[in-house]
């Protein structure tokens, strides 16, 4: 492949050039947006790595130029900063992938491998971004799993199909829904309905509205949430708690793109996008008859899974910094640092309540802090006797090799030693996985 690297870090460019040329690729590199756009305009590059922040401009401008080129090829955005807005914008501009610094060579090689597989299709079909401006709320994180969520938001913002957001309580499902709304329909209403907090007998009227005289106490017409949302978004939080009979009415409204208010006969068009979220296992509910299968499949046209915090512990420092800034301002306290032991304490805890619980713990810890630095005692006292395991900062630490060996072995067991599925789960190539199996002397069970 012919690859272009645009980054102001000369050492990084040289390192990538050495590794990629060793694999047989032709590589050019440059350090400014202007030079990068000039080189790309010469044509023929199959893949371009673009740094977000360049000395003379933004990597997003380079992406725009690549998108509009006669032979655009594929582009991968790389950055060393936390910027959800830029991630979404990069995906909307057609970025093939998004990689965080410091660069993991394995991630780079995987991107190149995927690009090679997609090369022909990418050259024949360009992604056209939406033109709407957007100001999404910040989803904080740099882990691969949360970056994937942000990338999905960018992709799904290019249409208005129903979306189902799955994840445990406290993971930030509504935050994802709002980010999707802001990327798709900025300035339009975002109407949230908590299906578990509204009395079932009143939920129908809340959704569809009612006409005067529809029932006792209905002394005036009422506009429902679906109509009030207009061309914005209706967010059904905890859709799994909706009564089955109301599920049928919601399904009809989604299918027909219209509905009638309670007691009325006039059809009202449904113009809003439908986004739903749940912490429940909806597939099991469908099997037991507690949730309509046809509604589940209609809502689940596209699904976003928000990972629990224990699966992205590397994001805890970023989240902590973000939360501390907000909490310190709200409580009028000047707490801006976290002791190393306190941070290890935070990262060792399993967080059954996820980001919401982290926010609560940090709020209490800030109140307990006597200086501008959170100490281990502040955090440990705030976690207290919570049910999740707290290994503590002094827990024995495995070597990196042993930890990786155990992780690979556990992933293989979870897929029944299916190499292809395990490689996808670990986000590495099957070739890399086979090498790790050999290096770690892992053996499949006798019955495999």
Please supply descriptive tags for the structure shown above.
single chain; 448 residues; alpha/beta; Rossmann fold; Helicase, Ruva Protein, domain 3; 4 domains; 5-stranded parallel sheet; 19 helices; 46% helix; 15% strand
What does this molecule look like?
With 448 residues, this protein is an alpha/beta fold. The protein folds into four domains: 2-124, 3-Layer(aba) Sandwich (Rossmann fold), CATH 3.40.50.2300; 144-305, 3-Layer(aba) Sandwich (Rossmann fold), CATH 3.40.50.300; 310-383, Helicase, Ruva Protein, domain 3, CATH 1.10.8; 400-439, Arc Repressor Mutant, subunit A. Helices cover 46% and strands 15% of the residues. The protein has 19 helices and 18 strands. The strands form six sheets. The chain has a five-stranded parallel beta sheet, with helices on both faces. The protein has a five-stranded parallel beta sheet with strand order 9-12-15-8-16. Strand 1, helix 1 and strand 2 (26-30) form a beta-alpha-beta unit. Helix 4 (84-92) crosses helix 6, helix 6 (144-156) runs parallel beside helix 7 (173-184) and helix 15 (354-368) crosses helix 16. The longest helix has 20 residues, at 105-124. The radius of gyration is 25 Å and the shape is globular. The two termini are 38 Å apart.
Count every beta strand, where a strand is a DSSP E run of 2 or more residues.
18
* Classification by helices and strands: alpha/beta
Helix content range? 40-55%
Spatial strand order of the main sheet: 2-1-3-6-7
The name of the CATH topology of the largest domain is Rossmann fold
**Second CATH tier, the architecture of the largest domain:** 3-Layer(aba) Sandwich
What's the number of helices?
A: 19
**CA radius of gyration:** 25 Å
Give the low-confidence spans. Answer: 121-136, 387-395
What would you give as the CATH superfamily of the largest domain?
A: P-loop containing nucleotide triphosphate hydrolases
- Overall pLDDT metric: 85
């Amino acid at each position: 492949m012919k690859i272009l690297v645009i980054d102001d870090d000369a050492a990084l460019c040289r390192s990538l050039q050495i590794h990629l040329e060793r694999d047989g690729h032709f590589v050019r590199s440059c350090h400014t947006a202007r030079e990068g756009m000039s080189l790309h305009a010469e044509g023929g590059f199959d893949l371009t790595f673009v740094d977000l922040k360049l000395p003379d401009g933004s990597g997003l401008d380079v992406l725009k130029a690549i998108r509009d080129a006669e032979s655009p090829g594929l582009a991968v955005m790389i950055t060393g900063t936390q910027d959800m807005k830029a991630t979404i914008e990069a995906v909307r501009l057609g970025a093939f992938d998004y990689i965080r610094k410091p660069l993991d060579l394995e991630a780079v090689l995987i991107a190149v491998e995927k690009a090679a597989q997609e090369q022909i299709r990418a050259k024949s079909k360009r992604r056209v971004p939406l033109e709407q401006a957007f100001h999404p709320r910040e989803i904080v994180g740099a882990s691969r799993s949360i970056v994937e969520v942000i990338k999905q938001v960018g992709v799904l913002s290019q249409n208005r199909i129903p979306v189902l957001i799955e994840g445990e309580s406290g993971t930030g499902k509504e935050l994802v829904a709002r980010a999707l709304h802001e990327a798709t329909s900025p300035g339009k209403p975002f109407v949230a309905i908590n299906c578990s907090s509204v009395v079932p007998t009143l939920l129908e009227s809340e959704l569809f509205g009612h006409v005067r005289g529809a029932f006792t106490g209905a002394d005036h017409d009422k506009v429902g949430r679906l109509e009030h949302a207009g061309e914005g978004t209706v967010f059904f939080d905890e859709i799994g708690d909706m009564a089955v009979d109301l599920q049928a009415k919601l399904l009809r409204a989604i299918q027909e793109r219209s509905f009638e208010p309670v007691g009325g006969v006039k059809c009202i068009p449904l113009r809003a996008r439908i986004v739903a979220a749940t912490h429940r296992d909806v597939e099991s509910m469908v099997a037991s008859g507690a949730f309509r299968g046809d509604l589940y499949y209609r809502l689940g046209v596209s699904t976003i899974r928000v990972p629990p915090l224990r699966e992205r512990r590397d994001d805890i420092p970023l989240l902590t910094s973000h939360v501390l800034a907000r909490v310190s301002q709200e409580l009028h306290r000047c707490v801006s640092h976290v002791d190393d032991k306190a941070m290890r304490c935070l990262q060792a805890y399993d967080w059954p309540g996820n980001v919401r619980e982290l926010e609560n713990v940090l709020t209490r810890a800030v109140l307990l802090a006597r200086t501008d630095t959170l100490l281990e005692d502040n955090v440990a006292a705030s976690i207290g006797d919570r049910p999740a395991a707290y290994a503590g900062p002094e827990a024995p630490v495995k070597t990196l090799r042993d930890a990786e060996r155990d992780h690979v072995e556990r992933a293989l067991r979870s897929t029944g030693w299916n190499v292809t599925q395990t490689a996808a789960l670990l986000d590495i190539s099957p070739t890399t996985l086979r090498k790790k199996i050999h290096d770690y002397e892992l053996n499949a069970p006798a019955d495999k």
